[in-house]
Queue: 3 jobs
Job 1
Amino acid sequence: MINISKLYCGTASSSDQLRYGQDHGSAQGAARVKRPIVVWNITKRCNLKCIHCYTDSHAELADGELSTSECKTVIDDLVAFQVPAVLLSGGEPTTRKDLFELAQYAADKGLRLTLSTNGTLLSEAMAATIKKVGFTYVGISLDGIGMINDKFRGVEGA
C-alpha cells in the first residue's frame, strides 16, 4: 500500500506512525516491538461485482459468516494479543447490519479502527456514525472515473 500523501507531498500521515512505529527512521525504532495491524474481512457480502475481487464476494450472505457474538470474541482475542489497530474490510463491510455495534465494541476496548469500503452505500447519516464511533481513517476504493470505474466494479453507477 502506498501512502499517497507521502508520495505527492513528502509528508507523513498519522497512519505512518502506526504502520512503521513512532520512532520510524531512527536507530531506536529498530529495537521497538511492532504489533501487527489486522485487516479483517468481516463479510464476503458485497453489492458490487468487481472483476478484481480477491474474496469472491457476492450479494448474498456467505455460509459460515461469523455472528455478532463470534465477532466480539475475535475482537476480545485481538485485544488480548495487543493488536493496536484493525482495518475492517470485506466484501463490503457496510453491508453488515452490526458493523457499528462491532466497531463501537472494538473502540471501547481500545482498538484503533479504520474502514475500507467501496463507498457506494455511504450516506450522510452513516458518515456521522463513522465519525461518532471513532474510525480514524476511511479508505474508499476507486478504479477510474465514470464508465472505467463501473467496468471494474461490474455495476453501472458505481
Job 2
Amino acid sequence: MRWTMEEARAALRRDKEFRPLLKAVKPFEIKSHRPYFWVLCCSILSQQVSGASARAVINKVRALHPDLRFPTPEAILATSEKKLLGAGVSRQKRRYLYALSEAFTDGGLGQVRWARLSDEEIIGRLTAIVGIGRWTAEMFLMFSARRRDVFPVDDLGIRKGMERFFRKSDAGTMVERAEVWRPYRTVASVYIWRYLTAGGI
C-alpha cells in the first residue's frame, strides 16, 4: 500500500503527547531498500558488532563478487567458507548466510511476491531461517519493505523512549499506547529513535 510521510505526520499530530517529537525531530523520509536478499545479508553481518566493523565486513564480502552489483544467493552459495572467513565473516555468520541463500533458492523466497504478504506472514517466513529473529524481520519490514505499521516493542530504543516519554514500561502497555498511532507505527517508532539520538528526552 502506498503512503506518504506527510500523511503519517498528519495522523501522528492528532496525538497531543506525540507533537513534541514531531517538532523536535527534523523531517525525514523512510525509503525502501533492495535487493531484499542483500539487505538481509547485511543485517546478518551487522549482528553484535559495531557499525564500523559491520561496514568493513560488508564491503569485503561485496568485493568477493566484483562482477555483481550485489551478491546474489547463488553467488554466496558458491563462495567458499575460506573466502568468507578471509572477509571477516565468523563461522556462525557463514552458516547464517548459507541458510539465507538456500532459503532464497531452494526455499523459494526469491520467487515470493512480498507485496502480497502480510507483515506477520513475512515475519514468519524470515524467522524460519536460522540467524534471523523477529527484530531483524521487523527492521526488514520497516526499512526495506517500507511497511508503515510495524512497532518493534522488543527494541531497546523503543522501550527506552516509551518509558521516558510516554511513561510505559512493559510490553503490554507499550503496545496499547501505540495503538493510537495506527496505521503509522513505523513512522512513530523512527521518531522515537531519532528523538532519543538527538538527546531530546
Job 3
Amino acid sequence: MKRGRWADQPELLRKRSRLNVIKASTLRELGMKDSTIYRRCRPDGPWRRLLPGIILLQSSPPTADQRAVAALLYCGPLSQITGAEACRRHGLRLPKLGDDRLHLLNPHETKVGSSGFVLIERTARLPEPVVREGIPLTPLTRAVLDLTRRIPEVEPVMQLVIEAIQRGHCVPEAMSKELEIGGRRGSAIPRQVLSRITDLRSVAESHGRDLSMRMKVPPSDFNVDVYDANGRYIGRPDQWWDHIALAHEIDSFDFHFWKDDYARTVQRDTRYAAAGIIVVRTLPSRILQEPDEVLAELEAAYQAALARPRPTVRAIRRAA
C-alpha cells in the first residue's frame, strides 16, 4: 500500500511543523489521506486535533506555546494575539479570569470565524505587531484594552491597567486615546478606571483614599511631594495631613514588582523618620479586609502627630 512521503520520512513531519503543530493541508501535501489523519487524531490515537484543520503531533495536552502556534496557523498569516495571552507574554500578571480562550485580531476582510479555544476579532485597525519568541502580539496598550473591554467588573480591570502603567509600558493618555479610536463597545469600565487612576498608583491606594475620607479630619492632600527644611526630597505619600505632617503609605511588595522598588521604599521610610514625619504604613490586603482597624490606626496616628511639634517640612503639589 502506498502511504506517502510522511511514512518513509517521519522527520519530515517535524520539519514541516512548528512545535509539533501542523496544518492538515500540509499533511495532505505529504501524501497523508484524510482518513489516516482522522484515525490518528481519535482519543486513542497518537495525535490531537486542536482546531479545524490544525493538528498536534502528540497525544499529550498542548503547551501555551503550542496553543498560540495553533491559533495563529488557524487564523492566517496576518493574525496577531491580543488580550490576556498577549498581556501575559508582555510580562504582566493577570487577575483571575473565567475565559481562557486566545483572543486574536485578524484583518477585517478575512472570513475565518472563532472556534474552540480561539476567539477571533476582525478589525480595520490592525496594529504593527510586537514579535516575542516568534509570536506576533499586539502592542501592550492595545492588548490591555482589548482584554479590559471583555471584563465585566471594575476591580480586575483596575488591577490590570494599574500594573501596565506601573511597569512603565503604558501611558494613561495613550490608553485613553486608544479607547477613543476603538469606539465605545465595552469601553465603559476601562473609561471609568482610567478616569480614577490619573493620580493613583495601585488598587489599594484607591480604596485607601476612600477609607481616609471617613476620618474626623480627612487628608489635606494626596500624592504631594514632601521636602525637608533644606529642600531635600523626602517622599510622595499616598495621603498627607499637612498641618501635622502625617503621612499614610499604602505599600507592599505585592504592588512593587521589582526588588529595586522595595529597596527604594525602605530608603524613603528612613527619610521620613529623619525628618520627624509620622508615617502609617498599611498592607493593601488590610484595607480591604480590616478597614475599621486601619481607620482606627490612622485616627491614633493623627492624635500622636497632633500632640508633637510639627517638623519643618513642606509639601508641594505637582502642576496639573
